[in-house]
């Protein structure tokens, strides 16, 4: 069995942080830094796990955090970096002093992604939608289109042949004076016997 994560231990507190806990964590880090998050809860007098302390400090308590709206420059940086690294929010946040990866992720999903779509730009590829449609059309080159059309025509011919064959068999039943629905033998045998009857009548 593997080691039990610290946040799943019975004596670890979960849920909302209190102002007293925030003060304990901030005071300890101000004096000792953030070298070992596994030891910080015990040394700071907290019944929290190291991960919870790290997230609380990183996302809420560290003094260099920036709150409020993102500037135009920050938004441009996010869009530019996203076109290169995608949804790797921690890498993007590292280039935005005072912003957390969670802040960047939320701002992208709630505003920037919609903003790009409204400008006619795909937020995944960062290419104009018109270019994407052109690329799709290019991939379907004339030979491929012809092949698809030929395949579709083949399916249509098979279906028509099936229908015509069925019509012909029904007509042969009618000529023989036998109602198809009244026969109890397998359909293949019925067709064979019907064809034989028609041949005999023609020979006579």
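^ structure tokens above, recovered residues below v
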């Amino acid at each position: 069995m593997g080691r039990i994560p610290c946040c799943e231990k019975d004596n670890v507190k979960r849920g909302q942080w209190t102002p007293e806990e925030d003060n304990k964590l901030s005071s300890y880090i101000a004096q000792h830094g953030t070298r070992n998050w596994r030891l910080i809860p015990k040394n700071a007098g907290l019944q929290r796990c190291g991960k919870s302390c790290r997230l609380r400090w990183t996302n809420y308590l560290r003094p260099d955090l920036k709150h409020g709206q993102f500037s135009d420059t920050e938004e441009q940086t996010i869009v530019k970096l996203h076109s290169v690294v995608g949804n790797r929010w921690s890498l993007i946040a590292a280039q935005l002093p005072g912003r957390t990866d969670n802040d960047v992720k939320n701002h992208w999903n709630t505003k920037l992604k919609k903003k790009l779509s409204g400008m006619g730009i795909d937020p995944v590829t960062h290419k104009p939608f018109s270019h994407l449609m052109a690329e799709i059309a290019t991939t379907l080159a004339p030979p491929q289109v012809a092949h698809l059309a030929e395949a579709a025509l083949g399916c249509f011919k098979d279906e028509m042949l099936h229908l015509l064959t069925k019509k012909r068999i029904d007509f042969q039943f009618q000529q023989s004076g036998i109602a198809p629905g009244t026969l109890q033998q397998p359909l293949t045998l019925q067709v064979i016997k019907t064809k034989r009857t028609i041949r005999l009548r023609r020979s006579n």
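Residues 6-61 form a domain with the Arc Repressor Mutant, subunit A fold (CATH 1.10.10.60).
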